[in-house]
Amino acid sequence: MSATTTIATPAKKAPYPFYLGGVAATIAASITHPLDLTKVRLQASGDKRMVESLKKTVNTAGFRGLFDGISGTWMRQMSYSVCRFWAYDESKKIVGADKDSPAWKLALAGSMAGGIAGLVGNPGEIVMVRMQGDYAKAPEKRFNYKHCFDALFRMIREEGASSLMRGAGPNVFRAILMNASQLASYDFFKAELLKTPYFNDNIACHFTASFAAGTVATTVCSPADVLKSRIMNASGPGSNSTIGVIRSSMKAEGAMFMFKGWVPAWMRLQPTTILIFLTFEQLKNGVDFTRSKGYTFV
């Protein structure tokens, strides 16, 4: 009588917490906030150079002025970034993408995630841009928001609830470009690097993949980023028209206005992208370690 043997199938790995990417993005954005602040003020004001904008900020508000509007940054990341990382994972399931999928399939999943996250995160995006851009304006034109929730409630009270969707079109378009280029590029470059004999799944690989993804994302997103900042900083009637902003900017500055602030945008997005993915990968390692010790709360 022969004995039958059964082969145990390995248990399917539990997914990582949906908020992990948002936490990583919040940490990264807090560290790089001064560069993000400078990028927004360059795009929204008449400043020509990054150093000029930094000096103006320090002279006007002191060193702490480099962290103006950080509560708006936190609001934006905990709405937009939490949503985009979650939606990207879900979109990859829908389109059948995995780590070895072609770039177009990853970009499709990133585009789907960007469309959802751009809409969900639009109020936080406006709050962040307005709080960061305030000190670049004349005192009589400033919003003077105390914190992100003050900005949110005052916008609803003074401009109506529809103001929370100001610039939603360019913002969603920019979010689609960002996630198709940043998240998808990172996954693509990481997979390609791991196919070579020179990289393992470690910090060196994560750094290289995120560096490449940051450069791609900066170039792809620059036009939509400039338009988004100019529209969201506008407050007069009819000033939030995308076509109107394009016409006036083209007339005053030429077509290259769409890449105004590219260098500070690259300098901001590169460390942010690197920090996001390095932090994200380490948080995932932390979750794996915690679960290996028998803790199941993460």
Automatic annotation (TrEMBL):
Keyword Aminoacyl-tRNA synthetase appears in the UniProt entry: no
GO aspect biological process, one term: transmembrane transport
Keyword field: Membrane, Mitochondrion, Repeat, Transmembrane, Transmembrane helix, Transport
Solcar repeat ranges, renumbered to this chain: 12-94, 101-192, 201-286
Localization terms from the record: Mitochondrion membrane
Alphabetized SUPFAM superfamilies for the sequence: Mitochondrial carrier
Main subcellular location: mitochondrion
A GO CC annotation given for this chain: mitochondrial membrane
KW Transmembrane helix (keyword) present: yes
Membrane topology, record value: Multi-pass membrane protein
Superkingdom of this protein's organism: Eukaryota
Matches recorded under InterPro entries: MCP (IPR002067), MCP_dom_sf (IPR023395), MCP_transmembrane (IPR018108), Mito_Metabolite_Transporter (IPR050391)
Family: Belongs to the mitochondrial carrier (TC 2.A.29) family.
Protein name as catalogued: Mitochondrial carrier
